[in-house]
Amino acid sequence: MTGLTAEVVVDGRQPQTPALAPSGRLLCYVLAPISRSGDHLDSALWLVDTDGAVASRRVTADIATESRPLWSADSQTLFFLSDRADRGIPQLHGLTLADGTMTTLTSWRSGVIDHLPLADPNLVALLAEDEPTEQDARRARDRDDAIVVGEREPRARLRLLDRRTGRVTTPSVFGDRHVVELRQRPDGGPLAVLTWASADNDHGPRTGQLHLFDPTTATAENLGPVEVDARSLAWWPGADGWHLGYIALTPPGLQGGTAVFDLAVDSRVLRNRTVGLSMCPTELCQTDAAPLVVCADGLNTTLARLDPTDLTTLSQHSGRLDNLTTTPAGEGIAALAGTRYQPPNVHVGPPSGPLRRITHTRPELDGIALGTQQPLAYRAADGLDLDGLLVLPVGRTASEGPFPLVTIVHGGPYDRYADRCQLFWFPSAQWLAAAGYAVLLPNPRGGQGHGHEFAASVAGRVGQQEWTDILTGIDLLVAEGVADPDRLGIAGWSHGGFMAAWAVGQTDRFRAALVGAGVVDWGMLAATGEYGQFEAALGGSTGWSGVGPHPHDAVSPISFASHIRTPVLILHGAEDTNVPLGQAVYLHRALRHFDVEHEFVIYPREGHSIRERNHQLDVLRRTRAWFDRWLRP
After folding, report:
1. What's the predicted TM-score (pTM) here?
2. HSE-up (13 A, CA, CB side) for residue 72
3. What does each C-alpha distance from 426 to 39, 202, 439, 555, 587 come to in angstroms?
4. Tens digit of pLDDT for each residue in 436-465?
5. How many CB atoms neighbour CB 1 within 10 A?
6. Where do the DSSP E strands lie in 397-505?
7. What b/e readout covers 255-272, taking b as 16+ CB neighbours within 10 angstroms?
8. SS3 state at 16
9. Residue ranges with strand state E in 410-472
10. What domains are defined for the chain?
11. CA distances from 212 to 178, 330, 415 (A)
């Protein structure tokens, strides 16, 4: 057995967006590096036979960012996006399997965002922003580029590529709305088109509308508004005509579980098909008949079929099942799945299971010892059933405790820990387990996998019951002799960073904390974060909610900065638009004011996730060094 190094963690490659050919015999996937060394993330397309007779083979040889593989209806042409000609500006390409011919299909100057091959083999629908004009170029040269908010904002628009002529046309049917997603009816009929009022993530998801678009006549019909944050469109035939479904937030409010919504197109009747479901739908996958539904189910995943009157369970899978793709008839599926000790790979099989692994993209992890991972089930102080994971130090058993314990809180909060391999560039359980730590990965209320009410319970009350849920898990491990009460640490990224900052303002139990891209002031985040109104729903108010004090002040870690005595490591990307850098600066200045031991690290050029290789290495090494300093002196 060899040891785990930071280089092994970040230098691997991972499969993404598998696309199963309609014939079911071939599958294409993107193989992308975990970290980026240069200015671009160089990815490539790979093909694999689903019967496993032939190993994966690389389709493309150029150094490029390649993405979004999709098949023609006859399985003979593979369409994909690549910036091989002009780095950073993706264009649509086509690969003809019969002779291996690769063709560049677009030269759209602003690049292509997404595409959808249509039933008519001569047409491909594109999503792309407007091409720059000569006036735009002149303004750029003259630096006459003042940004007037609300004017000339970029919009993704629906465009049609005629493969016979190479001509791209833009139907003027959606006004100035931003096009988000497309899905053609299985019989080759109209396209369902999801649009927003703007591309602004604070505003757009609350303004969604559905349209029908006829690619033959280039005409559209508005089906009306959709629920908040709608996505994952799917068609299916019903006794009363065609139905169109999507996944969206369950009303009311902007924080809660997702649901499957079913629109009968002819009658315009909309139904929530998953009311009271104890799981959370994450994907809809269209077939020629009833669509498939992927549901987060506690620590695991359930695959179901949306039948006319019920949600029929087809199979259950340990951990996660992501990026589901299926043959038109739905008899074969592919998805990304892994195990407790193996990262995600492409798996294929029938919807009823079992699924068979057909890729092995991280052989460098073979032979590396990992910590034993086990599910936890326990009850909150108010009796609510909770779950989570415990990862033990490598080579150790629970009976050998107590160990120094680091609790890592997941982000979101509408996310979850699934029973999968916990090894990532950010503070992760197996990275710390390799250094001798036990790690608690709790799933407190507010997260995914336990239905709408479980998720909605934290709206306006972040840091309250979810915090006691976490404490209950820590106390359980202390009582069982797994965790040393004098050597406790807490960490998290994004909402997990918020919980780490919250924790050290509420108690001195922790010897060290890590706040990664964390929220410290909900009012400021509602005002400056790209998802402002969603953050306002969590914090409970905004700064313009009248004269304070405001509800969000009572749930903001910065309000309790004077109580902090725990050493804090703050990590943040300089270009983070989700949780802007000002949040970290605010915490840093407060800790400096109160003379609290802390370290503040800013990663240039990085957003909410850290992408550059050297920065990812620094996160891993600095995380371990920080907890070693305070928990293992």
Report:
1. 0.96
2. 17
3. 21, 26, 14, 25, 20
4. 999 999 999 999 999 999 999 999 999 999
5. 9
6. 403-409, 438-443, 483-493
7. bbbbbbbbbebeeeebeb
8. strand
9. 438-443
10. 369-631 (3.40.50.1820)
11. 15, 24, 32
